[in-house]
Amino acid sequence: MTDTRASAFTFLALANLFWAGNWVLGRALRDAVDPISLNFYRWVISIVVLAPFALPGLAAKRDAIRRHAGILAFLALIGVSIFQSLVYLGLKSTTAVNAVLINCAAPLFILLSAWALEGERATLRQLAGMLVSVTGILVILSRGELAVLRQFEFHAGDAWIVLAVAIWGVYSVLLKRRPPELSGLHFLFVLSVLGVLFLAPAFAWQVWQSPPRMPTMGEGAAILYVGLAASVGAFLFWNRGIAVVGPNAAGFTLYLLPAFGTLLAIAFLGESFGAFHAVGIATIVAGIILATRAAKR
C-alpha cells in the first residue's frame, strides 16, 4: 500500500511538472495563438497520439461509455474545453506571477468542491499543510522579500484564472465518478474527443474571424509540447494518481507547480538559483508531506 501511494504521488508530481511547462508556454504564446485555437490544437494532438492505442479496445467499452455518457460529457466540457481555454485566456492579460499565485488556490477549491459535492470535510492536518505550502510559495514569489508581495497587482485576466481554478476543483472531485470500466488511456481518449467536439464551434468561429497563420518552428514545438506532455502525459498521471489517493490529497501536490515553474525559469531563462528558492521549495514539499501523509490508525 505504501508503494502504491508513493507511486501515485510520483505520478502527481510529474503531472505538475508537465503543467508548469504548459503555463510558461501559454504565456509565451499569448500573441501567437488565440486561447481557443491553442486549446483546440492541444487536444487534437492528444487524439492523434492516443488513437492507435485507444481505438483497438474501445469498441468493447461502448456499453460503459453509453451508460456514463452524461458524466463523461460533463468532465470533458469542464476539464478539457473550458478549464484550459480560460487559463490561456487569462494568461493573455495577466502576468505569469499572478497566474501562478492564483493557481495556488486550487487545493482550496478542491476541498470546497469535495465538501459541496461529496460531503467531505478537510482535516486539521490538511489545513495545516495548506498553510505551510502557501508560505513556501510566498517565499519564492517574493524572492525572500515581503516588499515584493506588496507590489502585487490584480489584472483583468486574473478573474479568468480564478474561474478556471474553481472549475478544476469540480473536475478533480468528479473524477471519482468516472466509469471504472474505462482504463486511464480510454478515459483520456474519450474526454479528448468530446472536448474537441465541444471546442469545434468556437474554433470554427475563431478561424472565420481571424484565419490562423503558419506557426514558426519554436511555436510549433511549444504547441506539440502542450499536446503531448501537458495533455497526454500529465492527464494520464493526474487521473491515475487521484484514483489512488483521492482528490483532497492529490490537490495539495498542485503546490509543486510554482516550484517547478521556478526551476524551469532557471533552466531555460537563465535566472539564478537563490537561497530563497531552496527554502521555498523545501517548505512546499514539507506542507505536501504534512497534508497527504496517511494518518496513523
Task: Outline the structure in words.
- This protein has 297 residues and is mainly α.
- It has one domain.
- The chain has helices at residues 2-28, 35-58, 62-67, 69-91, 96-103, 106-118, 124-141, 146-149, 156-174, 184-209, 217-245, 247-252, 256-269, 275-292.
- The protein is globular and about 55 Å long.
- The model has no long low-confidence stretch (mean pLDDT 84).
Radius of gyration using CA atoms only: 19 Å
Uncertain segments are: none
Domain module tally: 1
Helix content: over 70%
The main β sheet shows up as: none
Instruction: Tell the overall outline.
Output: globular
Return the structural class.
mainly alpha
The DSSP helix count reads 14
Query: How many β strands by DSSP?
Result: 0
Helix-strand topology string = HHHHHHHHHHHHHH
Write the layout of secondary structure elements.
Layout: H1 2-28, H2 35-58, H3 62-67, H4 69-91, H5 96-103, H6 106-118, H7 124-141, H8 146-149, H9 156-174, H10 184-209, H11 217-245, H12 247-252, H13 256-269, H14 275-292
Question: Which descriptors apply to this entry?
Answer:
14 helices, 79% helix, single chain, mainly alpha, 297 residues
Q: How would you summarize this macromolecular structure in one to three sentences?
A:
This protein has helices spanning 2-28, 35-58, 62-67, 69-91, 96-103, 106-118, 124-141, 146-149, 156-174, 184-209, 217-245, 247-252, 256-269, 275-292. With 297 residues, the protein is mainly α.
